[in-house]
Amino acid sequence: MPFAERAGCERREPGVATLARSEDGLNSANTVNGGLIALVAEEAALSLSPGATLCSLGLRYLQPVPIGPVVARASQHNGLGVVELRDEGNGDRLSAIATTRTFD
Q: Full-prediction pTM beyond 0.90?
């Protein structure tokens, strides 16, 4: 089973991926685990380039995601992308920003 599927990460549309808060995806502070936030960013970026491979992901964590779901919205130009990750249940607050690079 693919890790994204096992974690409950879903692609809503090209450039948008979500991850609901779940008990097995929390860290010791009861917020969404940072590795799962990175997973949502990756899924959003890859959904814009079917068949491409992600070769770089730089992530800046700004604040925790206590409520969820985490919603990632990606934009991309010539393989370079930016992903905004927000805590939808917490006033749609910006939680992280990622930069990505894909190649075919």
A: yes
